[in-house]
Amino acid sequence: MSDHVYRVTEIVGSSSESVDAAIRNGVDRAAQTLRNLDWFEVSQVRGHLEDGRIKHYQVCMKVGFRLDD
Amino acid sequence: MSDHVYRVTEIVGSSSESVDAAIRNGVDRAAQTLRNLDWFEVSQVRGHLEDGRIKHYQVCMKVGFRLDD
Amino acid sequence: MSDHVYRVTEIVGSSSESVDAAIRNGVDRAAQTLRNLDWFEVSQVRGHLEDGRIKHYQVCMKVGFRLDD
Amino acid sequence: MSDHVYRVTEIVGSSSESVDAAIRNGVDRAAQTLRNLDWFEVSQVRGHLEDGRIKHYQVCMKVGFRLDD
Amino acid sequence: MSDHVYRVTEIVGSSSESVDAAIRNGVDRAAQTLRNLDWFEVSQVRGHLEDGRIKHYQVCMKVGFRLDD
Amino acid sequence: MSDHVYRVTEIVGSSSESVDAAIRNGVDRAAQTLRNLDWFEVSQVRGHLEDGRIKHYQVCMKVGFRLDD
Amino acid sequence: MSDHVYRVTEIVGSSSESVDAAIRNGVDRAAQTLRNLDWFEVSQVRGHLEDGRIKHYQVCMKVGFRLDD
Amino acid sequence: MSDHVYRVTEIVGSSSESVDAAIRNGVDRAAQTLRNLDWFEVSQVRGHLEDGRIKHYQVCMKVGFRLDD
Amino acid sequence: MSDHVYRVTEIVGSSSESVDAAIRNGVDRAAQTLRNLDWFEVSQVRGHLEDGRIKHYQVCMKVGFRLDD
Amino acid sequence: MSDHVYRVTEIVGSSSESVDAAIRNGVDRAAQTLRNLDWFEVSQVRGHLEDGRIKHYQVCMKVGFRLDD
Amino acid sequence: MSDHVYRVTEIVGSSSESVDAAIRNGVDRAAQTLRNLDWFEVSQVRGHLEDGRIKHYQVCMKVGFRLDD
Amino acid sequence: MSDHVYRVTEIVGSSSESVDAAIRNGVDRAAQTLRNLDWFEVSQVRGHLEDGRIKHYQVCMKVGFRLDD
């Protein structure tokens, strides 16, 4: 109804499993301290390699949440 | 043999499951109305959050298809 | 200890299964000929379509590795 | 409930009045032929000049709409 | 005199009226909790459509403010 | 006189001859089904290689055309 | 008739009122010294904040004008 | 020998013939008023369409020239 | 061992001396309030001019730090 | 049949004749040392000017080739 | 007080010493012919190599200056 | 005289001292194995932080070198 304002924070989630899990880990951690999470958008997918294998997928993403009026 | 021309359309596929499923859902829907689909390229991965969890993965992508001569 | 120098090479991994598998296939192939792989970053996710289905996921990525001193 | 798919079309709205009016004119025209319009995003603001004055504001924008299931 | 350091935060202001009002709403809300606001820069103009009309203009912007020494 | 609205479509023209011919082939094909073509802008120049030679030049371009009032 | 050449200059217009006014102020000033102004395109919208309010809207834009043959 | 400084100016060359001719026309015109031209780089290739044909190729480019010491 | 999550904050460091000093000043200030700083990346180098001289170098950068588990 | 991996190398072809010739010269040279060339994509078109004329067209491009399994 | 308009010019400063010196050389040269210089922003850092060493650092930058009312 | 072809390789130089030193270290290492180095261009400046201080400056850059005819 009113004209909401949102804040956007940038996080990097990581996972040794998959890109999707890295996104979920990042969102889960953000949800521990931020309320009213509304959307995310991925800005980069990268990862750390060790001994020729993927050690961690790392997903940089912006997370938007609604500020209280 | 001849010099083909392609058209590129932009769609957003969504899924509550995963990034891959959102891509597949988008391609499936495009295939219902377009023939000769040839390639896709992802332009953005984002999603909708509700109660601190991922409600939908949303993948914006361009889909190219060959036009009849 | 010393100031390392890294080289970055660009590869495209593909898979008929998933985005994650395309990334892994690319890294596996790079690891056959390059030592000291250190990180990767995805620059594009695309794919080839045939008969209205995804035939191959193709992931362009940069792979960084440490050069010997 | 289901996993919706959206299509994105690109239009250029113009107006001799203002940037906002050019956006509204573009949306109005799109609404004449497309149903279920959902969002727009501006990709460029430009304009045509004549005799040292702004003759038309031109706003390029992407417009997304939900495809029927 | 001294070498100031600034922090940049990202917000999305919205308004049912106009792009300018969405910017102002975003700045007003930021000013409730942040001191020494110094500049803003728009990174995206988008909006929500309903029944073929603009329901909300949404302006993503970065806001910079000076940190205390 | 009135405030025109334009639509932008994205096509890929190809040619075994040259970049210019690929652009012309794309425009020619678009002109078969679209009226009031007004401008084009090239977004990418690429091509297909076979046996170490250029088999096809491929030019991605946006083509704008005026919608009827 | 002949193949015109255009020059593009970059200016920043400002206004304490609105984005549109900042664009107009920039164009007005350019028109004082340049003839045959033909188009403008906005490259950035930003502004200066003071006491938690917008002091000036600043619009960076490119202005194109036709050179005499 | 000394540390030269260059200036970069932006022009748009046009031609009814080809992309290459549009580049040459732009450079030729720049050479009428600027000395010590050193390099150019194309920033956009576009064109004007009329009756379903290319009326003009338009090439936006930056042209760099050495300033006298 | 566990799948860390990082937050990325954006700051602008300034210095009347050099680009490097502006980076260091920004990092020093961030270290006063944030723990577990892990990396920075420069997004823009700019500066303020006065009387034809560089008054301040200003370096915009993103700073990443590890969140506690 | 299998999931191919490609490598992408970046080259700059030059020619005193035309953009197309610069592309061909770059591809020809790459074909002397690389097998299984598959595609190219232009990343920049620029050139060297001397005495107010185009001395060399220079085309930066990425060239992709299939790695042996 | 009034709504200033600024012009932005693009220059390339060079130096055999350092990136900072290349920036300063560019600003110094601009200050010889332009008044009211207000800011600069670096758009590219590059350089010329000879015999395996850096012969010149070259910094492309935009320089903004206030136009007289 | 002839139409040279160049190859572009991407490296990351690092230094605990400064941005300039990281560039030089990268160029020095490249010069050990590549002949006819011609230019470099910086694509990213970043660094590693430890205990709230800059441990390493890391400069990603492209290095171009002339291929033998």
From TrEMBL, chains A, B, C, D, E, F, G, H, I, J, K, L:
A Pfam family the protein falls into: Dodecin
PANTHER family reported for this sequence: CALCIUM DODECIN
Protein name as it appears in the record: Dodecin family protein
